[in-house]
Amino acid sequence: MQIVGFLIALVGVAATVAATFMVEWKKEAQGKFHIYEGLWMTCSGTERTTCERHKSVLKLSDEVQATRSVMLVCLFLSAVALIVSTVGMKCTRLMDSMPESKAKVAVTGGMLFLISGFVTIIITSWYVSIIVEIYHKSHRLQTREFGNAIFVSLGGGFFSVVGGAFLSCRRCCETKSSASKSSNHLLPTTHSKSNYV
Question: What are 75-89's pLDDT values in tens digits?
Answer without folding.
Answer: 999 999 998 888 877
